[in-house]
């Protein structure tokens, strides 16, 4: 199994992806829409991703996006949260 990536690096990627799709993860956490366990699972999924370079490239060319990049490990969760924000 591949070692997990750097937690802070992946936290930044996850935050960037959420911003790009219009989700404020900190606000969702404060509102109780994301639990501690949800937050930890999202970061762990991101850390296990095999494509962080693709994610960086996607974020560099997509300040705003309708959906996370194809293959994003947290796409389902982000889209559910986005649906609550609308």
Would you write up a description of this structure?
This protein is mostly helical and 86 residues long. The protein has one domain (7-85). Helix content is 64%, strand content 0%. It has five helices and no strands. Helix 1 packs parallel to helix 4. The longest helix has 15 residues, at 7-21. The protein is globular.
**How many strands in all?**
0
The end-to-end distance, rounded to whole angstroms, is 38 Å
Q: Spell out the helices and strands N to C.
A: HHHHH
Cα-based radius of gyration, to the nearest Å: 12 Å
Give the averaged pLDDT, no decimals: 93
Shape: globular
**Computed structural class:** mainly alpha
Classify the beta-strand content into a percent band. under 5%
Provide the fold topology.
Elements: H1 7-21, H2 25-30, H3 36-48, H4 52-61, H5 75-85
Helix pairs in contact: 1-3, 1-4
Concise description?
By secondary structure, this protein is mainly alpha-helical.
Overview features:
86 residues
